[in-house]
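Recall the central idea of this unit: under ordinary conditions, the amino acid sequence of a chain determines the structure it adopts. In this exercise we apply that idea directly, starting from the sequence alone.
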Amino acid sequence: MPKLWTETVESHRREVRDAILHTTAALVAEHGLLSVTMSQIAEAAGIGRATLYKYFPDVEAIALAWHDQQISGHVKSLAEVRDQAGSASERLEAVLEAYARILHESHGGHDADLVSFLHRDDQVPQGAQQVAELIRELVVECIEDGEVRDDIAADELASYCLHALRAASGVRSKAAVARLVSITIVGLRPPR
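Accordingly, the structure predicted from this sequence is:
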């Protein structure tokens, strides 16, 4: 097959897959995971059921693929924040703020069945490990610069950040998220 044709077919497949994921996420948000059917997804996405089944065997598989896409996107955006210019401590603070915002925005209003189903997924621990490693690397840089305490191992400090900021998923306002990040950063500073 010519390269142009291959690229066009692959592009079309990505577009159809993305439409399926987006449509399913919207339907699950509106009706709940247990109420959505493959027929509803096909109709709302504007594709035939046979086409839908070529991509995914069931609603749960679509939900998992959507969740994987979300996790990958979050990890990628945190890496982009980390790679911005500035000192290690500025970049660490920016990553912690971005992570807290992600937690705050992504946990509000999801269907309880969906959350329970998705958090059994192997992608959650893998994504969490990637975020922990990203934060740990920044903590190490900050320790070397004297900006973060060195009396506690970098792994433990990264774990502290992750656990402290997990509370962002339950706070009500962006101001509360900012305060949570601020308190977390204070805990990283060297003792006087």
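The two ends are 67 Å apart (CA to CA).
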